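Input (structure):
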């Protein structure tokens, strides 16, 4: 389950072309330097727990909430009853921009009599006929996505269902549905995200997606028998996109943790938290061998170059060591030649390390965080794998800090996200495996200092 999501600012493309390969474009948005902490907006109470949901803007006041005819924020969330084993959908509204919320006296507004009906994502459908609100939610244990419509956000009518399909080894959660244009074409496809706990590609919780069509009533997947993964790492779950932006700026943020160990993660008393959020990611569809594939481009802060190496050959047994800032981005392109692959190690002064290794024989990137798992739950230690094309040079973009890494390959169509445990990175080490390699480029960038 994930937090409420609403609207986002615009992103700007950035990132130059490399001389010998194409670096994945990176969106850069202005970073807000000053943020203010506010009290909890929507509390649980004696009757209900408050689970995941979404927020919409009722522009014309059709819900009748707030002042007549005035825009109002409406939160649609899952009520988990404390008095009976039941989940249903409730609403609350805000007339001050989201600081103060008032729960609806008639809650819940949609009750199927189900124990596992949750995580509503609501958006406005504008087809050839009248527009209306569409709710996408799940029957978690039955591995079904359920669709509803409403004119006023208060009364809901069933539209259709989708599933089971794809990966069904765990409970379905946090669905999302949105249109994307296939790059360099006039085709528009709809993408259905479904998070899954457990049974994902890296073990535990994660997210799959389906590509197909939605006509305002029914979603039809093009290839439901094929499982497509949003992320190949252990720590990218319950991602939901922001509605209200142009389709070209469709943006997703996910929870950076895994239910296999989330409840056992160590907690710093000075800053109590478990897990983090991923970087915001712009989404698009790109055609890969006739198959529309989801592409993710990270939205990051402004960066300044810290160090750079170009066109460096490393013989068998040689390694390149570079100091790195505690948080930043690595852009790496390596021609493995006839070697078996190469390794990129993020290392700390205390001996902790996380290794990203490319296996040229298998066409797989591995991320090994066992060297940074001290003090973390037993299920945390492990090695993740992500298939990649063997096209040389192998180019990756790696965002990292002392909490996690987000690895983007194949122009953002392959992504792997992992928490990094006890690692405090101070050094990057690159070396070949079984032969000579050539570093086409290694660029190390750090977050630019905030402006005054």
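Output (sequence):
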């Amino acid at each position: 389950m994930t937090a409420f999501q609403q609207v986002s600012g615009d992103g700007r493309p950035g990132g130059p072309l490399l001389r010998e390969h194409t670096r994945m474009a990176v969106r850069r948005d202005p970073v807000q330097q000053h943020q203010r902490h506010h009290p909890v907006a929507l509390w649980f109470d004696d009757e209900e727990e408050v689970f995941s949901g979404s927020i919409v803007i009722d522009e014309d006041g059709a819900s009748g909430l707030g002042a007549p005819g005035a825009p109002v924020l409406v939160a649609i969330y899952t009520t988990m009853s404390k008095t009976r084993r039941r989940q249903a959908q409730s609403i609350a509204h805000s007339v001050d921009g989201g600081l103060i919320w008032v729960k609806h006296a008639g809650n819940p507004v949609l009750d199927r009599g189900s124990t596992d009906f949750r995580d509503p994502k609501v958006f406005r459908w504008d087809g050839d006929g009248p527009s209306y609100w569409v709710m996408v939610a799940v029957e978690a244990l039955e591995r079904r996505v359920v669709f509803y419509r409403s004119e006023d956000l208060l009364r809901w009518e069933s539209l259709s269902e989708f599933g089971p399909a794809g990966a069904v080894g765990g409970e379905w959660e946090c669905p999302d549905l949105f249109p994307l244009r296939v790059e360099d074409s006039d085709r528009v496809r709809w993408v259905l995200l479904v998070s899954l706990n457990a049974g994902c590609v890296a073990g535990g919780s994660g997210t799959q997606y389906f590509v197909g069509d939605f006509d305002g009533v029914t979603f039809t997947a093009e290839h439901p028998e094929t499982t497509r993964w949003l992320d190949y790492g252990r720590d990218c779950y319950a991602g939901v996109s922001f509605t209200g932006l142009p389709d070209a700026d469709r943006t997703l943020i996910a929870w950076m943790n895994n239910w296999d160990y989330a409840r056992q993660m160590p907690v710093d008393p000075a800053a109590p938290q478990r897990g983090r959020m991923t970087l915001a990611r712009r989404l698009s569809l790109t055609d890969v061998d006739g198959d529309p594939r989801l592409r993710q481009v990270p939205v990051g802060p402004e960066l300044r170059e810290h160090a750079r190496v170009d066109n460096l050959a490393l013989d068998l047994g040689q390694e390149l060591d570079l100091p790195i800032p505690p948080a930043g981005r690595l852009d790496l392109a390596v021609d493995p030649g006839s070697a078996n692959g190469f390794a990129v190690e993020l290392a700390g002064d205390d001996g902790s390390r996380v290794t990203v290794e490319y296996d040229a024989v298998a066409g797989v990137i591995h991320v090994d965080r066992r060297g940074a798992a001290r003090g973390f739950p037993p299920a945390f230690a492990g090695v993740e794998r992500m298939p990649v094309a063997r096209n040389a040079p192998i180019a990756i973009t790696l965002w990292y800090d002392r909490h996690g890494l987000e690895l983007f390959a194949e122009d953002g169509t392959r992504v792997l996200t992992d928490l990094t445990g006890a690692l405090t990175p101070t050094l990057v080490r690159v070396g070949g495996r079984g032969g000579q390699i050539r570093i086409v480029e290694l660029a190390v960038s750090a977050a630019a200092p905030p402006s005054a």
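Notes: The domain at 163-299 is CATH 2.115.10.20 (Tachylectin-2; Chain A). Confidence is low (pLDDT under 50) at residues 1-26, 28-32.
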